[in-house]
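#onboarding

Welcome to the new folks! Below is a worked example of what a typical request in this channel looks like: someone posts a single protein sequence, and someone else replies with the predicted structure as tokens. Don't worry about understanding the tokens yet, we'll cover that in week two.

Example request:
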Amino acid sequence: CHPIPGDPIMGFISRGRGVTVHLATCPTIVNEKDGLTYVLIAGDGLARKFYMARTEVTSEAFVRFRPRTPARGVLPATGVTWEDARAYCEWAGGRLPEESEWEYAAASGGLPLQEIAWFKGNSGGRARDAGSKQPNAFGLHDMQGNVWEWVEDARGAERILRGGSAMSARKFAWLGAASCQRDSNVSVCRSIGQNE
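Example response:
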């Protein structure tokens, strides 16, 4: 699935103010282990197709992996180390996304930030339910804001987080935001299912 205007699998949503979002109807699968829906991400800029979780990994999904973890429903799982994020993804039959894969999946869209992201200016300073903002053109929710997301890559000894959080200033809650630091809103990951 590649959101390109004119593609026969595309839908169009007019958002007013001259903004039209091209929303792909990408193939999905439901992972029986974690209960999350995964969306097929494919395109010319990728070496291989892959499935990516439609939302951040929820607390509800993470409890299936670690039953003693406090359950918080569909809030994103937070306070998770990179090692635990990687272990979760392996348990779910996938892996952490590479930074370039995360960027590709996050870059599709065109909606105003306040419609797709929870950040300091609109979140009340706390993470919100996964998937409660508009999706991007691939049908992925919360790629910007809400909680930082782990990726496989590192810069030196530091692991990389992407996307900003509900505590991030607006300028850091965008697809280019990367950090090697942690705040209280670090998500487990956005799991990648098996490659197609």
